[in-house]
Write a structure and sequence with these properties.
The protein contains six helices and no strands. The chain has 95 residues and is an all-alpha fold. It has one domain. The protein starts with a helix and ends with a helix.
């Protein structure tokens, strides 16, 4: 898994996947990410703010190290939210 190379623990990913199955949580998460652009996902400060907001929504306590790992992962993936192939790649990574 690509996220593991960034030091992100599979247990954290599994907890987040379970929490996102809750429709209310999923809707709050969609609102957070609804207007995010490719350039937003390449700016470290914006990604860090999104990670902190997501952690609050998901009620996850992240350490500074975990936050930095997630930020590095997001920037490293060069995600374009308008590109279906990018979204499919992410979907397959976290299935």
């Amino acid at each position: 898994m690509s996220y593991q190379t960034y030091g992100i623990r599979p247990q954290l990913v599994e907890r987040v996947k379970v929490k996102l199955k809750n429709p209310a949580t999923k809707d709050r998460f969609r609102l957070l990410l609804g207007n995010v652009t490719k350039s937003d996902l390449q700016e470290r400060a914006k990604v860090r703010k999104l990670v902190k907001s997501a952690a609050i929504i998901l009620q996850e306590q992240l350490t500074e190290t975990q936050e930095e790992q997630i930020v590095s992962f997001v920037i490293g993936q060069k995600i374009d939210p308008n590109n279906t192939l990018h979204l499919l790649k992410l979907w397959n990574m976290f299935r």
